[in-house]
Design brief:
mainly alpha; two-stranded antiparallel sheet
């Protein structure tokens, strides 16, 4: 799943939660969560996945030298 897709799902989940809804529609699918806790768990999972993708993309090695060892 791409970062863009994850962010779209994250936005849909947050919008539903803030509106007090437990049903979310995205990608032509409808998901109904049993409780707010389940919805919060789904949001946390998406946030972890976004963070994991973001950290992989930002790993850049930069060599540096130290004088006077």
């Amino acid at each position: 799943m791409t970062l863009t897709e994850l962010k779209a799902k994250h936005t849909a989940l947050l919008t539903a939660r803030y509106a007090g809804l437990r049903s979310v529609n995205y990608d032509g699918r409808s998901v109904t969560y049993g409780s707010d806790a389940e919805l919060a768990t789904a949001i946390a999972d998406i946030e972890r996945r976004i963070a994991a993708l973001g950290s992989k993309a930002s790993r850049i090695s930069r060599p540096h030298a130290v004088k006077d060892l």
